[in-house]
Design a protein that fits this description.
The complex is a heterodimer of chains A (117) and B (115). Chain A contains no helices and eleven strands. With 117 residues, chain A is mostly beta strands. Chain A is globular. Classes of the chains: A mainly beta (117), B mainly beta (115). Chains A and B meet through strand 4 and strand 5 of A and strand 5, strand 9 and strand 10 of B.
Chain lengths: 117, 115
């Protein structure tokens, strides 16, 4: 079956521009996560959705970052007034259910590489 | 707070040699631990996971990891490295936070395989 897809795969933005990054999770997956992966670092948590509810946005670095998942499937991460420090790979992951730890696994998309010039 | 520490950001091994990637965890409760692999320009793929069922966990591509509570370690090994193993490897710990499983990743270890 299809995995997690993300678009665009690459995005170059001029400083100050707004960008929107899309994530299509695996069909039926309840949980959706966004991560930011800076160069040479591991993924860092940004936000978490359970269906359409954003239950945790504690990792969003500033109020310029906004995420939504209005119908509980596709999600969009929006960054307003991009800054150079926003340059990173943004990864999306989905999973079936978060409470059943025995079956817990996050499936990752290929990421969107954002470069802010 | 739960965290993992990966020792060695770069590891080089010869083809056919043992692969050992180190990971130590810090957790106040029994942890769920994972190893993920990331190939260039791709997302992360799960190699294996520890969920307390067995201390020696076997994963894909011949990798395995052993959970050692006394050493708070979860090192990743493979008896014989293959060129296709060259990638970046991330250790991760998951824990319940706010009613869901939250995952914290290490900084990664880049594995180079020398022919």
């Amino acid at each position: 079956g299809a995995g997690v897809s993300q678009s665009p795969r690459y995005k170059v933005a001029k400083r100050g521009q707004d960008v929107a990054l899309r994530c299509d999770p695996i069909s039926g997956h309840v949980s959706l996560f966004w991560y930011q992966q800076a160069l040479g670092q591991g993924p860092e948590f940004l936000t978490y959705f359970q269906n359409e509810a954003q239950l945790d946005k504690s990792g969003l670095p500033s109020d310029r970052f906004f995420a939504e998942r209005p119908e509980g499937s596709v999600s969009t991460l929006k960054i307003q007034r991009t800054q150079q420090e926003d340059s990173a790979v943004y990864l999306c992951a989905s999973s079936t259910h978060v409470r059943l730890a025995q079956t817990y696994e996050q499936y990752f998309g290929p990421g969107t590489r954002l470069t802010v010039t | 707070a739960q965290s993992v520490t990966q020792l060695g950001s770069h590891v080089s091994v010869s083809e056919g040699a043992l692969v050992l990637l180190r990971c130590n965890y810090s957790s106040s409760v029994p942890p769920y631990l994972f190893w993920y692999v990331q190939y260039p320009n791709q997302g992360l793929q799960l190699l294996l996971k520890y969920t307390s069922a067995a201390t020696l966990v076997k994963g894909i591509n011949g990798f395995e990891a052993e959970f050692k509570k006394s050493e708070t370690s979860f090192h990743l090994t493979k008896p014989s490295a293959h060129m296709s193993d060259a990638a970046e490897y991330f250790c991760a710990v998951s824990y319940l936070s706010g009613g869901y499983q939250k995952v914290t990743f290490g900084i990664g270890t880049k594995l180079q395989v020398i022919p």
